[in-house]
Amino acid sequence: MARCQCGGGDCSCVIQAGDNTTVTGSGSTVNPIIVSAVTNCSEVRTCLAAGPGVTYNPSTGAVGADVSAAAGNNLIINEDGLFVPTGAATVSVGCGLTGDGSASAPVQVGTQPWPFSCELDTQGGGVYCDSAGVLRSDPPVRAAFTQTSMNQTYNDLAIPLSETDIASLSMTISNPDPCRAAFAMVFEEADVSVTLPASSGGMYGINGDDMWALQNRGSAAINDTHVQVNKMINLVVPAGGSVTQTLDVSMGRGFGGASYSSIRAAMRSWLFSIP
Q: Where would I find the H helices in 117-263?
């Protein structure tokens, strides 16, 4: 710190040292004033030393950067400082990935050509990341088969004149796919043993659909005649849900003592989840 006092055209100054500085000399020609500064080190240069990533020349006091020459290091000293070029960092990849992350070989998912005749952009499935960070694809298509049957016998019951449901068979069709609805093809069949005395007749069918009818116009009875009739229907079962399908065996148009003695029925379902 300098303190100066002026008077009569003359000025005199006193220089006082501050923190970390010293002032010596009287200011004369033979004893000039010298101001010195120090840090926590006795000399500034002795406070510096070369270390990992730093170069130091103690003779000149120059400090610089030291870049490792180890393989895979992409750090360089640019004209304005340390610099890592874009795309220069490389990585080691595992199964399903290609490239090393450099500009000429970016990391990519390993793929193969689309082998189908449809358009990839509109028909391709998705790839997803689960809660554990694992890649997942669309859920697989699932299929299921279900069947049930019945076989009942009777003591020659009369075939009713009006169409009537005389037996019923039910089956629950479950969709094992929790993600998507399913398409079910259901095959239904019925077989009724019928006895037709002379001048008699009768009919049977499935779910109100008359599928077999016969009239005996002869003079002798037709005993235990039967024909297996069947239908194919389709159902849509919601994801993770179920649908109950019922097969009703119906009979009617009975006259002249026509009767039935047994009913056999079955249902079979082939189910496939809808992509």
A: 120-123
